[in-house]
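Re: beginner question about structure tokens

> Can someone show what the tokenized structure looks like for a real chain? I only ever see the sequence side.

Sure, here's an example I had lying around. Input first:
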Amino acid sequence: MSIQWVFIAGYLYFEIFFVMLMLLPIFSPRKWHKFFHSRLFFIFRERTAVYFYGLLGILCMFLIDSIREMRKYSHSSEGPTHLANEMKGSVKLFRAQRNFYITSFAIFLAYVIRRIITMILIQHELQVKADQIIKKAEETVKLAKTTVLENNLESQDYEEIKNRLDTTETIVEEQKIRIKELEEDATRWRLKYEEVRAAEGCGDN
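And the corresponding structure tokens:
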């Protein structure tokens, strides 16, 4: 295997490892968000699309080269040939097919990684918004408790004040349940998307 194909195979192994790492529940979306916005990616952040499509262009060139090699050695095996030449042609055809599958899978995983990163960042944004809603709801409850106790403690019965506070807390709990449902919906859609991408990948193969 030549140097360029060793590099592409190593890149494919890196993609597989990175996809498995992102799919495992080891790091939360918040940690991934910090990682992708760290100083390590500061240089690549503004030109991510350029690097991504540039890498895809290189992989596509190697893909076309592997297709050309497959066509070349598949035609050369036709007709009467010597056994040694036939074995040599079969080996070269096998290598061309191997290079084709390596490059194709590397291109496919590049798109998969890009989509997974996008989904993780979207999930982090949803979690941040949910935390902000919960924080505002808790502050509203505290403010409501303070206001009710200051304005109505002398003129209203204690049971009425308690009922109002219970009603406010019930509203807050309903909001928390709604936020949890939104997070579950986002997770479910992400899993459906991954299933569709996996089905498309199996269909392509």
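Each token stands for a local structural state, so reading them left to right follows the chain. The radius of gyration is 29 Å.
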